[in-house]
Amino acid sequence: MSEAANYEKSIKRLEEIVSKLESGNLQLEESVALYNEGSELAEKCKKALADAELSVKIAKEE
Length: 62
What we know:
The protein is mainly α. The protein contains two helices and no strands. Helix content is 89%, strand content 0%. The model has no long low-confidence stretch (mean pLDDT 93).
């Protein structure tokens, strides 16, 4: 799977997690697990964006 596909999949999952957390209909343990999963996904997305930004910057310099 390409980086772009992984990024899009991660964003979709983050949206699902946010929706579930905002519903307020979860047990504490499930909320914590979803929060942790979301935090990890957000970090991966942040890194992917930083990598893409660096690639664009390098390409512009060439």
